[in-house]
Amino acid sequence: MPRRLARAAADLPVGEVVFDARYGLTGILTRLDGPVAYISRPTGFDWCTRRSRVRPASEEERRRYDALIEMHEAQVRFIEASAAVR
């Protein structure tokens, strides 16, 4: 299967789901500052990496990211429900 050519990191809009090749993680691009890209995950994990290591997430990576959001939201609901019982 041919690989899609990634757009240059400079073309990535803030708010897009991206893949960081250095860490092997997907997240939301929150900011670009010179050669640095800032990325955030729904769990609250934020990190920065080289802009050149960031590319748009593939469809599979987007599905995994969406599943992570759902799992995190379910965990938060469970914790909140457990706290309300006490």
Pick out its properties.
disordered N terminus, alpha+beta, 5 strands, 86 residues, 5-stranded antiparallel beta sheet, 31% helix
Q: What layout of secondary structure does this protein have?
A:
Layout: E1 17-20, E2 25-33, E3 36-40, E4 46-50, E5 54-56, H1 59-85
Antiparallel strand pairs: 1-2, 1-5, 2-3, 3-4
* Helix share bin: 25-40%
Low-confidence residue ranges:
1-6
Based on DSSP secondary structure assignment, what is the total number of beta strands?
5
Largest sheet: 5 strands, antiparallel
Rg measurement, Å: 15 Å
Number of helices: 1
Main β-sheet, spatial strand arrangement: 4-3-2-1-5
Shape: elongated
Q: State which percent range the strand residues make up.
A: 25-35%
Return the average pLDDT rounded to an integer.
88
Order of helices and strands: EEEEEH
Task: Name the structural class.
Answer: alpha+beta
Distance between the termini: 54 Å
What does this structure look like?
The chain is of the alpha+beta class. Helices cover 31% and strands 30% of the residues. It has a five-stranded antiparallel β-sheet. A hairpin with a 2-residue loop joins strand 2 and strand 3. The longest helix is centred in the C-terminal third of the chain and has 27 residues.
In short:
The chain is built from 1 helix and 5 strands, in the order βββββα. With 86 residues, the chain is α+β, with helices and mostly antiparallel strands. It has a 5-stranded antiparallel sheet with strand order 4-3-2-1-5.
